[in-house]
Design a protein that fits this description.
It is a single chain. By secondary structure, the protein is α/β, with parallel strands linked by helices. Helix content is 32%, strand content 20%. The protein has 15 helices and 19 strands. The strands form 4 sheets. Strands 1, 2, 3, 4, 5, 14, 17, 18 and 19 form a 9-stranded mixed sheet that branches. A 5-stranded parallel sheet has the order 9-10-11-12-13. Helix 6 (196-212) crosses helix 9.
């Protein structure tokens, strides 16, 4: 019996999962233990917990128990209505062991296809999202104009948005390639410009908000998509005229060359200098895809040691290269890179120079991604693809081959992003934390097939890849939401008002 002060009668735990190998993000050891859950949180993690203490007892069958994945970079509602994506793409996330989904969102074309202040726009986003996500969810927002910069303190205090984003190439380059209609695309006013000066003012606005809200400041941050528009526009013209890239199967190599790695590196330098100029210490460098970008990010950490730069890579950039048979279906920004860049990302990850791994999930259905009449034409394909369901199993599969330890995987997929983005009850398997779990079989070989995913995308650039690990079950706050590829029950995800308690 629980103590009388708890007000409970009967068994003290709601659920007991026995016979697990618990992976915690601290240290380097996996522990054999049972996990007890009460009131949606972990209550006890220890070996030999008496089954009589729990209402429900399950056998973990010796599976690895990872903290639920915090997929800190997703794009729900970018190519399909948010009301649809929230359901189907969170199902896909749950199948992959994801329990927290942080989605980038903005005004302008795509998403809700409207501009205006966030005080009107964001409540609509929240209303659409409610009762649709199968996992807990939150949003990063992009300040696109001066009005949005002024709204930053309100967004933090009232709506719990603790992270913001700059798309550094939107000023004169489109989402999918060169563009001359940026003001129409961004839906900003005639007096607004989306340029380096705007990026500086966004940083100043976030830092001013941090200074005004000192109790939240440590978990308020700015993320940057680091590519340089002018270089990409010029190189796109050069590559499109270069006959070497016209041969069949060269689409991904051409797209990589059109958005060269030094475009990433230069944008990192610009972002870092502005962060120093504006005294904004919490900077996240998103989806670094190349050796030059990652080396630039590490160099800036040495030049400006007082800036806390976090470095992110995606599972797509770790698993795919320009020779992928997926061709234009693997088009993404920044691009899939040559194998030497992929190997450098892995070296950096193994050396502890990467802070977290994400999916950058952006479901783009086949008929939108590459209309049939444009098959084989990378320039006419849309950018982005889904893959949240493969994040953890692919990292476990490939990481194990390369000597990456399970606790480090937990740091990369749960603990580190949770700490940065203000999810203070997420990221660990310990008393008091939300009872989010991903049960992983590290010795189950299977082949990725798009048809097995609940995503509506209909294809995947990972098609045919053989993985040696699979997520067998996912628990969100103590309730099983996925078992062996099947999503269970109705959506029960909650909005994550950050920083959480």
């Amino acid at each position: 019996m629980a103590p009388e002060s708890s007000g409970r009668t009967g068994p003290e735990f709601d659920l007991l999962i026995k016979n697990l190998r618990v992976v915690r993000p601290h240290g380097n050891v996996v522990h054999e233990a049972d996990v007890a859950i009460r009131d949606e949180r972990f209550a006890l993690v220890a070996p030999g917990i008496d089954p009589a203490r729990a209402r429900v007892v399950e056998d973990g069958r010796g599976l690895l128990a990872f903290p639920g994945v915090v997929d800190a970079h997703m794009h729900s509602g970018i190519y399909s209505p948010l009301a649809e994506d929230a359901v189907t793409e969170s199902k896909a996330a749950a199948v992959g062991g994801v329990t927290s989904s942080l989605n980038y969102f903005r005004t302008g074309q795509y998403y809700l296809n409207k501009g205006g202040p966030y005080r009107k726009f964001f409540p609509e986003v929240l209303a659409i999202s409610k009762n649709r996500f199968h996992v807990d969810y939150g949003f990063h927002l992009a300040p696109m104009d001066r009005t949005h910069i002024g709204e930053i303190p309100m967004l933090i205090e009232k709506f719990g948005v603790a992270s913001f984003k700059i798309f550094m190439f939107y000023g004169s380059h489109g989402l999918h390639g060169a563009s001359d209609s940026q003001r129409e695309f961004l839906m900003i006013g005639e007096d607004d410009r989306y340029d380096v000066a705007h990026f500086e003012f966004v940083m100043r606005g976030i830092q001013a908000a941090r200074e005004a809200l000192p109790d939240k400041a440590s978990q308020v941050s700015l993320s940057l998509h680091c590519e340089t528009a002018e270089i990409m526009t010029a190189y796109t013209k050069l590559v499109q005229k270069d006959r070497r890239y016209a041969a069949p199967g060269m689409g991904l190599a051409a797209y990589s060359a059109s958005r060269p790695a030094h475009s990433e590196g230069l944008a990192v330098f610009t972002a870092a200098y502005l962060a120093n100029e504006t005294a904004l210490p919490n900077i996240n460098l998103l989806h670094l895809s190349s050796r030059k970008a990652l080396e630039a990010a590490m160099a800036m950490s040495e030049v400006f040691p007082h800036i806390d730069f976090k470095r992110e890579v995606t599972i797509g950039h770790l698993m795919l290269d320009v020779t992928s048979a997926a061709a234009e279906f693997a088009k993404v920004n920044p691009p899939i890179r040559p194998r030497e860049d992929v190997e450098f990302l892995w070296q950096a990850l193994l050396a502890g120079e990467v802070d977290w791994v994400v999916s950058d999930h952006a479901c783009c259905r086949q008929e939108l991604k590459v209309p049939r009449r444009y098959f084989g034409n990378v320039w006419m394909a849309k950018s982005g693809f889904g893959g949240s369901e493969y994040l953890l199993p692919a990292l476990v599969s490939e990481g194990t081959k390369r000597g990456l330890g399970f606790p480090e995987m937990a740091r990369l997929t749960s603990w580190n992003p949770a700490r940065r983005y203000g999810l203070n009850r997420k990221g660990d398997i310990a008393p008091g934390y939300d009872a989010d779990l991903a049960l992983v079989d590290p010795a189950h070989t299977w082949v990725i097939r798009a048809g097995d995913s609940p995503s509506t995308q209909g294809y995947t650039p990972f098609e045919g890849l053989e993985l040696s690990a699979s997520v067998r079950a996912t628990y969100l706050r103590g309730t099983k939401i996925h078992q062996d590829g099947r999503v269970l029950g109705k959506p029960r995800g909650r909005y994550l008002h950050r920083p959480t308690a």
